[in-house]
């Protein structure tokens, strides 16, 4: 797995070096500043001596602003958000303070493993489905947890237990331990800024509403926003790579960059464009085809990709409550031999899924215009 992950990191790095002409420092800084100010404003509103209903609404909004900052950090970790390595490095670190993520660990797990071998079980660590045989052999507790993960409200639990705690704070997982000294500066930065964030929320909440107990201050200022952002993150990645038309692989000989990045990735259209940055990032196949394209250029790049691969190889849909329920109902386990999704009893919920020959190359797209 480490060798495969290293090859995946090399693939990701080669993508990052391809195109830069659409990156804009002014636009990137404007986006980062806007969501940073909105993050601070919604945090103050969540802690201020307003009626509790207003505080809760502000706490939810604060979680959404954290999610927007995460998108900035995600792009900057790819070196794609603005021109310049140093700008991207520090925008990533600053944007990742509210999400409590290590930039260097994210680059290994996300840039290397997830992008290097998208939808290849055993390498891609995000939302990899269990097979019916794995599920049958698992303990009752593990089967119960998988049922929780694959439920409508499971993404918030999944992101905490499957991504954040085991992968994003300290280099304790096998692949990260190999170079733990390289990851320690970011880990120390994460721990220090996390402690400072909690202390700052406690101080601000006590100063604004001294009559409130500390547990309520921390619930409004951190617990609710972090839960909202985690659900946002978990469900976003779930929708990007889980769908009745999307296949997963457990054999690298059958996997290919085309099958993972084009056929294995969905463009999720958002019906109400409240947050343009989120709408842009959901043009996800273009991001996988070339992670160096900045998030604000992805819609045009997605149109370019669709023109190159055709509608038959385009996985796209408009997100509705009914669509989400259909995806959750169908995508419980994945039968890698029959190449179809199944329910928890192993009964197929989809026909065998179409994939391309592994020799089909990944289209090289650049920032349009």
Listing every helix as H and every strand as E from the N terminus to the C terminus, the arrangement reads: HHHHHHHHHHHHEHHHEHEE
Task: Report the β-strand fraction as a percent range.
Answer: under 5%
Helix % is 55-70%
Low-confidence stretches: 1-21
Q: What number of domains?
A: 1
User: For the CA atoms, what is the radius of gyration?
Assistant: 20 Å
**Shape, principal axes of CA atoms:** globular
Mean pLDDT: 92
Key attributes of the depicted protein:
mainly alpha; two-stranded parallel ribbon; two-stranded antiparallel sheet; globular
Q: Can you offer a commentary on this structure?
A:
Helices cover 59% and strands 3% of the residues. It has 369 residues and is mainly alpha-helical. It has one domain (2-342). The protein has a two-stranded parallel sheet. The protein has a two-stranded antiparallel ribbon with strand order 3-4. Strand 3 and strand 4 form a beta hairpin. Helix 1 packs across helix 5, helix 2 packs antiparallel against helix 3 (52-77) and helix 10 packs across helix 11 (214-241). The longest helix has 29 residues, at 180-208. The protein is globular. The two termini are 39 Å apart. Mean pLDDT is 92; it is low at 1-21.
List the helices and strands and how they pair.
Blueprint: H1 2-16, H2 25-47, H3 52-77, H4 85-95, H5 103-116, H6 132-137, H7 140-149, H8 154-167, H9 174-177, H10 180-208, H11 214-241, H12 257-261, E1 267-269, H13 276-281, H14 284-289, H15 298-309, E2 316-318, H16 321-330, E3 333-335, E4 340-342
Parallel strand pairs: 1-2
Antiparallel strand pairs: 3-4
């Amino acid at each position: 797995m480490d060798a495969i992950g290293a090859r995946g990191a090399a693939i990701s790095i080669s993508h990052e070096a391809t195109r830069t002409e659409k990156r804009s420092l002014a636009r990137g800084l404007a986006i980062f500043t806007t969501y940073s100010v909105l993050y601070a404003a919604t945090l103050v509103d969540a802690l201020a001596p307003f009626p509790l209903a207003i505080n809760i609404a502000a706490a939810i909004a604060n979680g959404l602003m954290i999610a927007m900052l995460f998108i900035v950090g995600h792009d900057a970790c790819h070196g794609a958000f603005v021109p310049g390595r140093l700008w991207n490095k520090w925008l990533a670190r600053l944007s990742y303070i509210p999400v409590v993520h290590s930039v260097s660990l994210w680059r290994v797990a996300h840039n290397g493993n997830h992008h290097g071998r998208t939808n290849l079980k055993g390498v891609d660590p995000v939302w990899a489905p269990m097979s019916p045989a794995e599920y049958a052999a698992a303990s009752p507790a593990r089967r119960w947890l998988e049922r929780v993960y694959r439920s409508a409200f499971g993404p918030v639990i999944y992101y905490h237990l499957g991504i954040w705690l085991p992968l994003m704070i300290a280099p304790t997982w096998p692949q990260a331990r190999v170079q733990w000294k390289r990851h320690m500066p970011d880990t120390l930065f994460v721990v220090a800024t996390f402690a400072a964030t909690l202390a700052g929320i406690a101080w601000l909440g006590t100063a604004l509403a001294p009559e409130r107990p500390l547990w309520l201050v921390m619930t409004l200022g951190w617990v609710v926003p972090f839960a909202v952002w985690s659900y946002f993150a978990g469900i976003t990645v779930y929708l990007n790579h889980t769908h009745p038309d999307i296949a997963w692989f457990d054999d690298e000989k059958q996997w290919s960059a085309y099958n993972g990045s084009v056929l294995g990735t969905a463009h999720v259209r958002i019906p109400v464009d409240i947050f343009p940055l989120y709408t842009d990032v959901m043009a996800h196949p273009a991001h996988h085809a070339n992670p160096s394209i900045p998030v604000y250029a992805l819609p045009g790049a997605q149109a370019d990709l669709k023109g190159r691969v055709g509608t038959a190889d385009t996985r796209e849909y408009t997100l509705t409550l009914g669509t989400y329920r259909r995806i959750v109902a169908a995508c419980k386990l994945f039968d890698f031999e029959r190449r179809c999704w199944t329910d928890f009893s192993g009964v197929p919920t989809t026909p065998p899924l179409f994939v391309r020959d592994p020799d089909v190359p990944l289209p090289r797209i650049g920032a349009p215009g």
